[in-house]
């Protein structure tokens, strides 16, 4: 039976955080699916404060002052479709038309005027008439009237006649066939929703109205009057269905902090093993039974704990309700006193709970506010993710809305998807594979993979798992197993050994629960639009993870470098750089060439296991490792969960589960024979360089084919894929695949087969829009991204985030997207693009106000007076220099982007390009736009870091356009073969080598003195052979040093950002405070700002003080906003300079005296009254104990915060405010 509950409550203001917590906690206990709030008293700008993790759709109607205000909140667990909505601009009502469980409802939340205003109800029902056709009505809220004055009011002397508004409302109720739900279920009962403290009388003015035809399916309840002076009321509607909706159990990880719980679980496990562990019981059965026992104990403990926590509240609530009824029937001072005391006791309990929650929020806010992480990310979310699926279409195209129907459709869809009708002949698979030349594992690799899993490997696998992830069907997340690993490990290791020996995973360990995520920009009505994520039990995932750790160490040796997806030390950037080089090469060749982009249909879900196991054998995997894979894929089961309904399980017959650690690598192995067949097929013509042929690019299941002679090559590709599909279940969706012609007349769509892929001007690859015209890449990718960034920043602009939080937001949410484009597309966006991006981020940082600290300063390092806001130009340069480090550290060039770029450089080595001057602009290599972009970025980086693009000892001697003899670059093959390649080879001990020294050092023929003269004299024409002048730029030395390191991007960016200058207004501080100038001193001052506390608000206060960014009377006068610059808050008749405002002003000076005295008393350590210490944080005169220095600075920052809070009224400064 489906049901949903609507709760309505006049909350009399919900601005207070403490009150909001109490209200939402109580609403949660009432199990509300839809919530109506009245009198929220929120302004439009405060709407976002009314958020809760359980409600993903919130509608607010606010008034222009702190009056009225209504809200409708829809629980994220409710499958609801919004059809239409009407929001009253005066904060009186909200009307929403919705579809819930395939039924259409018009819901209305209202807050009626407290005066007799019939026109209000005329207006309400006029609005309703336009929306409520073909739907059931649910109207609730504070009507501010009693329908039955004798039953709905406690006062015996009240007017028995209904008000004019009540008469109008009852007329509409009769006309529309709607009734008072609570009264229809309680015809003679007296119960009230509102207490008037002035008249000490009760009334029932909050109620629900609904259609008489469905009232029999409804129940309504009035809850105690607590927190507000109105009682919350609830309506529950039962919908026809026999389906029981339930959630899978999931362990509450907060219990791991409960020491009592831990003792109980350890004792329970010990007793369980003592009773049940025997040779007759298999370890697998013992493990599964043990998990069930522990699960039962956890549920029992949690339930008992929750009941204990809520028992006192429920008892008091029932007592309040009983006393309220007694007092309403027979008022007396004694009953009134009892009622008030009971409410007071309940409020004490609620306040204690609220105080604890608020304290936790304060801790979280203190630690995480305005910092990169989940806390900030949740603030930036556009809307809460809703995992509920409102409707889905079946095979016949009919759209179904009932949750059970939706679940049935997905069950059938995935059962069919994971069922295999293909049963290929093993001999046919072997025949296909035997035609291919596939690499083999070495004996050592095979032996390592086949050795038994160790307990340490299993522990390492568990330790590597992330926390906070959804568990599998058994409900135990990684946190539980990590916490109790020492207790669980011995039995689990026996289980793993038994699984290996028997070749079967017992019990429910090999079951998974499929959760669905809607793919971006996909139609939510289609089952195929959802990505299935298999939630696998943690114990099974430990085994898979341990095997993955072994497999990833050898997979690079058997998977061709064309495949970069999910393989260590391979990157998607290599795919894209190669793609652009191939496009450039193809257009220069003028041959008929195309790119075929393949769309694999549910690639991971269609892996045929027989084929996969045979492929493993072909690559030389041993029997033991193959048995492990076979065991893990031996009749695994899965169920599908949608809208809190979990389907019956079904057996999987194919596919690698998305969620299993092994899946990406197994898929790479599975698809590699297809890639090898393409490479080794002579009929399929790739795009040729002078030394190799480029045919295929793979990133997991994203495949591009580079083809010459398109007609014949395509036909062979179709035939090959068809043959592969018949053996492997792999399938290409040809209608979604596409052909991108690279040159004119390379492909005529008129001649193509209707079943062939369509021809297009652009393709989508790894999230990029690709055009055969590389000059269009910026327009196709960077411009749309900039529009999206602008929209995101506009949407976030009104969020209550500080400057530090805004910078963190850009670094966390914007920078990764921009960096992705910079890393993939080497072409430089135009200057205007960077200017617009900088302007947009600056407006976001300053909330559209004039910046007090320039963007260039904010972008500096923290020790230089900045906040490390991202410098997008520097990030672009750093991403391009990443490719330069690949030049410096060449790998195997064959069939890679480096090979193509090396060919364009002719005789000059890629690794030498950074050390040749701008004469390269006239070299053939500069015609390659990718090389040109990288070199241009490198030259710009040298300029930024004050490096000089010049000949250095790292420059090559041979083929260098700077060293020409009769217009021909120098080249002596015998010298090169002897190891003389760069200018540094001509030097020893800081001096140029003599001819004899050179011949001895490099074993060259002594009869080549003329060649020696030729080389040295040619070089001297452009460059003095003096080691001092030939020193390379520091950036060049650094690039060579880090070329083989990890995390190169951040290192390069840091190198570009370091200026060794300070951007504080240090001249003013030094003049006012008599400080001796020192770069190290100011760097330490800046660093202390961020070391003193984790709280970003205090950090920002100190940062702004150092930058003197607060407006003083003197500054106001200079700006023309004040007639005088004299301080108006003291009697010194002195200009209100920054030092005066923050230190010398009389009330401020007195405040600082009190602060330093108080700190000295607390720390038992004299804190001097010094502006150097108190204002800028100079600890040199203090030399406190190491454990006190940061605390002192934090305390002084709080003092400065107190001054700033009283900036316009410093006379009210008080030590108690600190």
TrEMBL record:
One annotated GO molecular function: catalytic activity
CDD domains with a match to the protein in the record: L1-EN, RT_nLTR_like
Pfam families: Exo_endo_phos, RVT_1
Provenance organism: Gouania willdenowi
UniProt-listed InterPro entries: DNA/RNA_pol_sf, Endo/exonu/phosph_ase_sf, Endo/exonuclease/phosphatase, RT_dom
Gene3D superfamilies hit by this protein: Endonuclease/exonuclease/phosphatase
Protein name: Reverse transcriptase domain-containing protein
Origin: domain of life: Eukaryota
Cross-referenced PROSITE patterns: RT_POL (PS50878)
Domain Reverse transcriptase residues, every copy: 498-770
């Amino acid at each position: 039976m489906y049901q949903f509950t609507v709760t309505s409550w006049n909350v009399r203001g919900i601005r207070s955080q403490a009150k909001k917590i109490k209200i939402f906690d109580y609403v949660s206990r009432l199990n509300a699916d839809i919530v109506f709030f009245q009198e929220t008293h929120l302004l439009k700008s405060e709407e976002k404060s009314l958020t809760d993790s359980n409600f993903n759709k919130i509608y607010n109607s606010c008034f222009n002052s702190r009056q009225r205000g209504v809200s409708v909140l829809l629980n994220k667990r409710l499958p609801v479709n919004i059809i239409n909505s009407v929001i009253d601009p005066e904060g009186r009502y909200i009307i929403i038309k919705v579809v819930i469980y395939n039924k259409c409802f018009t819901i209305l939340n209202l807050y009626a005027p407290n005066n007799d205003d019939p026109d209000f109800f005329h207006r309400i029902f006029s609005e309703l008439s336009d929306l409520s056709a073909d739907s059931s009505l649910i109207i609730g809220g504070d009507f501010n009237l009693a329908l039955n004055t004798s039953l709905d009011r406690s006062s015996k002397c009240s007017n028995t006649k209904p008000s004019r508004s009540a008469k109008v409302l009852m007329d509409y109720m009769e006309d529309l066939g709607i009734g008072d739900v609570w009264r229809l279920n309680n015809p003679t009962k007296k119960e009230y929703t509102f207490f008037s403290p002035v008249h000490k009388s009760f009334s029932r003015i909050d109620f629900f109205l609904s259609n008489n035809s469905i009232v029999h399916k409804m129940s309504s309840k009035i809850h105690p009057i607590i927190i507000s002076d109105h009682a919350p009321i609830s309506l529950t509607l039962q919908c026809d269905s026999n389906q029981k909706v339930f959630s899978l159990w999931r362990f509450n990880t907060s219990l791991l902090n409960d020491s009592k719980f831990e003792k109980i679980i350890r004792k329970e496990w010990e007793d369980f093993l003592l009773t049940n562990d025997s040779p007759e019981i298999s370890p697998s059965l013992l493990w599964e039974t043990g998990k069930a026992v522990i699960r039962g104990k956890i549920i029992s403990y949690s339930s008992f704990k929750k009941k204990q926590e809520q028992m006192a509240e429920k008892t008091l609530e029932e007592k309040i309700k009983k006393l309220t009824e007694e007092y309403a029937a027979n008022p007396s001072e004694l009953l009134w006193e009892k009622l008030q005391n009971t409410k007071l006791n309940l409020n004490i309990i609620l306040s204690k709970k609220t105080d604890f929650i608020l304290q936790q929020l304060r801790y979280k806010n203190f630690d995480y506010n305005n910092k990169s992480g989940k806390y900030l990310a949740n603030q930036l979310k556009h809307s809460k993710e809703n995992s509920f699926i409102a409707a889905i279409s079946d095979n016949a195209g009919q759209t179904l809305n009932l949750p059970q129907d939706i679940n049935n459709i997905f069950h059938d869809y995935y059962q069919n998807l994971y069922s295999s009708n293909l049963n290929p002949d093993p001999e046919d698979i072997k025949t296909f594979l035997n035609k291919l030349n596939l690499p083999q594992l070495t004996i050592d690799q095979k032996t390592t993979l086949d050795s038994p899993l160790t307990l340490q490997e299993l522990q390492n696998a568990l330790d590597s798992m992330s926390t906070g992830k959804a568990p599998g069907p058994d409900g135990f997340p990684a946190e539980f197993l990590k916490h109790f690993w020492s207790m669980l490990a011995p039995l689990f290791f026996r289980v793993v050994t038994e699984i290996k020996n028997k070749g079967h995973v017992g019990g429910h360990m090999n079951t998974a629960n499929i959760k669905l995520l809607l793919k971006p920009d996909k139609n939510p009505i289609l089952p195929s639009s959802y990505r299935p994520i298999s939630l696998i039990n943690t114990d099974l995932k430990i085994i898979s993870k341990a095997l993955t750790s072994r497999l990833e160490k050898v997979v690079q040796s058997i998977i061709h470098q064309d495949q970069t997806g999910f393989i260590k030390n391979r990157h998607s950037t290599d795919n894209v750089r190669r793609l652009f080089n191939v496009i450039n090469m193809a257009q220069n060749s003028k041959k008929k060439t195309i790119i075929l982009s393949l769309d694999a249909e549910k690639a991971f879900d269609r892996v045929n296991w027989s084929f996969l196991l045979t492929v493993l054998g072909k690559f030389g995997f041993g029997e033991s490792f193959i048995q492990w894979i076979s065991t893990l894929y031996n009749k695994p089961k899965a169920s599908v969960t949608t809208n809190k309904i979990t389907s019956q399980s079904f057996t999987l017959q194919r596919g690698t589960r998305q969620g299993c650690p092994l899946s990406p690598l197994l898929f790479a192995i599975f698809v590699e024979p297809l890639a090898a067949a393409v490479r080794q097929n002579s009929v399929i013509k790739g795009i040729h360089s002078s030394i190799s042929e480029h045919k295929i690019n793979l990133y997991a299941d994203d495949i591009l084919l580079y083809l010459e002679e398109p007609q014949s090559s395509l036909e062979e590709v179709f035939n090959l894929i068809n043959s592969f599909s018949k053996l492997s279940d792999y399938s290409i969706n040809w209608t979604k695949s596409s052909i991108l012609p690279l040159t004119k007349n390379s492909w005529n769509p008129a001649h193509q087969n209707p079943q062939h892929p369509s021809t297009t001007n652009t393709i989508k690859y790894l999230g990029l829009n690709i055009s055969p015209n590389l000059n269009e890449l910026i327009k196709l990718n960077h411009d749309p991204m900039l529009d999206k960034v602008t929209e995101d920043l506009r949407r976030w602009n009104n969020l209550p985030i500080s400057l530090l939080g805004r910078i963190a937001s850009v670094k966390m949410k914007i920078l990764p997207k921009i960096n992705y484009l910079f890393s993939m597309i080497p072409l430089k966006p135009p200057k205007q693009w960077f200017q617009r991006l900088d302007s947009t981020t600056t407006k976001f940082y300053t909330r559209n106000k004039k910046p007090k600290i320039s963007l260039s300063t904010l972008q500096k390092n923290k020790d230089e007076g900045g906040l490390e806001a991202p410098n997008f130009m520097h990030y672009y340069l750093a991403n391009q220099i990443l490719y330069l480090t690949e030049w410096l550290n060449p790998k195997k060039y064959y069939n890679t982007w480096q090979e193509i770029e090396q060919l364009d450089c002719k005789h000059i080595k890629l690794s030498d390009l950074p050390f040749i001057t701008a004469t390269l602009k006239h070299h053939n290599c500069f015609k390659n736009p990718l090389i040109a972009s990288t070199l241009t970025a490198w030259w710009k980086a040298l300029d930024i870091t004050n490096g000089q693009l010049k000949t250095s000892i790292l420059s090559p001697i041979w083929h260098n356009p700077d060293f020409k003899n009769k217009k021909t670059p120098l080249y002596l093959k015998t010298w090169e073969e002897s190891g003389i390649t760069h200018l540094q080879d001509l030097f020893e001990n800081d001096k140029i080598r003599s001819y004899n020294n050179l011949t001895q050092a490099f074993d060259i023929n002594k009869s080549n003195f003329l060649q020696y003269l030729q080389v040295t004299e040619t070089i001297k024409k452009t460059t003095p052979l003096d080691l001092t002048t030939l020193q390379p730029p520091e950036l060049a030395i650094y690039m060579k040093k880090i070329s083989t390191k990890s995390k190169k991007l951040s290192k390069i960016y840091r190198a570009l950002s370091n200026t060794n200058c300070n951007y504080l207004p240090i001249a003013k501080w030094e003049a006012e405070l008599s400080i001796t100038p020192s770069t190290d001193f100011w760097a330490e001052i800046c660093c202390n700002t961020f070391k003193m506390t984790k709280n970003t608000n205090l950090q920002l206060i100190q940062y702004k003080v150092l930058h003197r960014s607060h407006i003083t009377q003197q500054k106001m006068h200079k700006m023309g906003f004040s007639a005088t610059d004299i301080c108006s808050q003291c009697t010194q008749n002195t200009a209100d300079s920054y030092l005066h405002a923050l230190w010398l002003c009389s009330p401020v000076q007195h405040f600082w005296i009190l602060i330093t005295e108080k700190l000295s008393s607390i720390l038992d350590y004299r804190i001097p009254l010094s502006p150097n210490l108190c204002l800028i944080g100079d600890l040199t005169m203090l030399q406190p104990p190491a454990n006190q220095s940061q605390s002192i600075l934090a305390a002084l920052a709080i003092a400065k915060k107190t001054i700033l809070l009283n900036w316009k009224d410093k006379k009210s400064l008080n030590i108690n405010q600190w």
